[in-house]
Model the fold of this input.
Amino acid sequence: MHMEDGEKHLCRACARSLNAASRTMPLSYADAEDGTGADALVKHSRECLLSVSYALPFEGVVRAVIHAFKYQGAVSLAELLASAAALAAPSECDLIVPVPLHSTRRRERGYNQALLIAHKLGDRMALPVLPHALARTRATESQARLERALRFTNTLRAFQARGGELAHHRVLLLDDVVTTGATLRAAGAAVLEAGADSVALVAVAGPP
Done:
């Protein structure tokens, strides 16, 4: 990447190194070691909560790009990340919901990175984006600081749907990075509780 007029841009060589393709990460309720996660989500144990689709391996250039986009204000990279996410996104969806940030973290960062990608992805797929259909009701500890098993309990009941916008729709739930899948699955459970017919868990990047 290089800087130009205060903005980060990806050189052609780096762009070509982004190995975008549809990848699948399976999820298991057994990942919540104390069983709490499994108990809370058991009524939503449909296939749609048992895997996450993503497009890029979270390493090397991809890690640097997402870090710049997420923490250094390089919002122009949203288009590039959305084009990658489109490869992992199912076509049988009615709308896109970005995974929300808690208001405290959004104020600190200045924007929700998943929302910026969602708008670009919505343009590509000709789908509406509903940024306020899902809310993060409590500020969870940063997932990066937690052991794998604790990430599931950290996100339990952290999300709540607003209004009836999701009922009877096939929802594409989008985040920037998936590690264990805890955040996406907890948010997906809230989407299903709101009456959605299905939810597709999609991220831009995930495990190499």
